[in-house]
Automatic annotation (TrEMBL):
Record-listed IMP binding positions: 12-15, 37-40, 124, 138, 220, 235, 299
Organismal lineage: Archaea, Methanobacteriati, Methanobacteriota, Stenosarchaea group, Methanomicrobia
Protein's UniProt name: Adenylosuccinate synthetase
GN (gene name): purA
Source species of the chain: Methanothrix harundinacea (strain 6Ac)
Entry cofactors: Mg(2+)
UniProt keyword terms in alphabetical order: Cytoplasm, GTP-binding, Ligase, Magnesium, Metal-binding, Nucleotide-binding, Purine biosynthesis
Catalytic activity, reaction form: IMP + L-aspartate + GTP = N(6)-(1,2-dicarboxyethyl)-AMP + GDP + phosphate + 2 H(+)
Amino acid sequence: MFTILTGSQFGDEGKGKVVDLLAEKYDIVVRFQGGDNAGHTVIVGDRTYKLHLTPSGVLFGARLLIGPGVVLNPKVLWSEIEALRAEGIRPNLGIDAKTSIIMPYHIALDELRESGRKEKIGTTKRGIGYAYIDKFSRDEVQMKDLTDPALLEAKLAEIGPAREKAIAEMGGDPAVVRDPVLLGEYLEIGRSLKENVADVSYEINVALDAGKKVLAEGAQGAFLDVIHGTQKFVTSSFTTAGSACANLGVGPARVDNVVGIVKAYMTRVGEGPMPTELKDEVGAHLSKIGKEFGTTTGRPRRCGWFDAVLAKKSMYLNGYTELAITKLDVLGGLDPIKICTSYELDGKTLNYPPESTVEFARCRPIYEEAKGWTEDITGAKSYGALPKAVRDYVERIEELLGVKITIVSVGPGREQTIWR
């Protein structure tokens, strides 16, 4: 069985918890895109694990794979591995030989470019975009290159001069491109991970042939997709479910399930349009109760009411077969609760988001109201035990999106999850 799981909004929907819950049922958990600009938090008992590259199934002994569509900062991955080992967890990890490496010069270029922009796009300055530029221009350093100094030296002899020139022209220090200390750190990690280098496409397909279960985990969310997101305020990779097949080298006919994660309200980190954003006491409530701060950057997330118009587009972009809804408990104490069901743009009512980001930024939400609740739902063990107002809210979202919600999260802990 092959399942793809993605975020359906702007990221930060709670994918880490859901992947962690599902991982017990899967033999392989594989990350298919993005880099360490995305993080996920997994809470087990009194332990909190903040991961950026290590797939969430690490806590359950699943085989973990990092696919070639990922851009990898080896120092970040190695620090995660060491932190997990300190907790007695030894990841069973495979990294595709073709995985692109985020080099120190990518980070330098990212920092220089963002600082020079008149209109910021909110990059995390971790070199993600520049690593993807090199991937698509075929000038990348790959994971395999870090396992052999001669391979890395040959790559940098070919592509290094152009990177040095670019950094110098932007006012940076070109020495970062071939800094022997930095390269030595990368090569040392490469030697340590040499036995972890794998052919991810082959391993997944052989596992599926053998009847094993594979879960493909995406980073960010649908509307940060480099094609279908809110350009230019997007990430540099393809975040929708269909990209999992291309990034991993698995044919689309092998996909059995596509799981989408929706937060019970909307959040967004960084810049870009967000029609339902609330800059009032309700937005402050969502931020405070939901602890809405980015896992990677620590930046506060912008908060707003649930946007069913945007979510409907996500259903089309991803082809979800089922949904998980997270952070329902955060809405407790708000009455009424609002759901955006259409937009107003230039005097016209829209039931689907406009393609133009400029037009999308001018959309104004049209809301319907739902009854709120005051009860504490964090201890609920069954769907029937939830207050009627909560169930009505869940079922209204199902009705608007046309997809069944099978997982209901009422708190951050693994045990605070209701399966329908």
